[in-house]
Amino acid sequence: MQNEVVLCLGGNQGDREKLLFRAIEALNDHFQLIRVSKIYESEAWGGVAQGNFLNQVALISTQFSAQDVLEIIQQIEHDLGRKREDHWGNRTMDIDILYFGNEIISTQNLKIPHPFIAERRFVLAPLADILPDFKNPITGKTSLEMLQECQDDSLVVLYKK
Fold this sequence. Notes:
There is one protein chain. With 161 residues, this protein is α+β, with helices and mostly antiparallel strands. The chain has a single domain (3-158), classed as 2-Layer Sandwich (Alpha-Beta Plaits). 29% of the residues lie in helices and 25% in strands. The strands form two sheets. Strands 1, 2, 3, 4, 5 and 8 form a six-stranded antiparallel sheet that branches. A two-stranded antiparallel sheet has the order 6-7.
């Protein structure tokens, strides 16, 4: 059975644009890439990382389980130089599963829908770009509704080279 999965990609270290491109290529090697958002530049979130991030959302289709997708994206992060040192710290690449179809998953290492979607403008802007009407299976709110209600006032703008 095919599942549509929504991923958020981002990083603030190295050649950010090239790393996003390489991450999308790697995702396309493992999954069927359906659509990607525009690239957004955003202020660091969480109070630990320094320097602006580039973020993008990708919609993929896969037959893999959510746990398998997690393992694959963590390997992609590692291959792109990700070091897991500080929670919410600087990184070359971070890939999070936002949605796995309409499933609600809660395990020790995986929470889907991602628990911070509605609190992060840097996630909601690219999410609303490609899936404005997709409803969060827990809240029933669309991506656009969550973006309009988001309390996060950090700057998120379309990336210009």
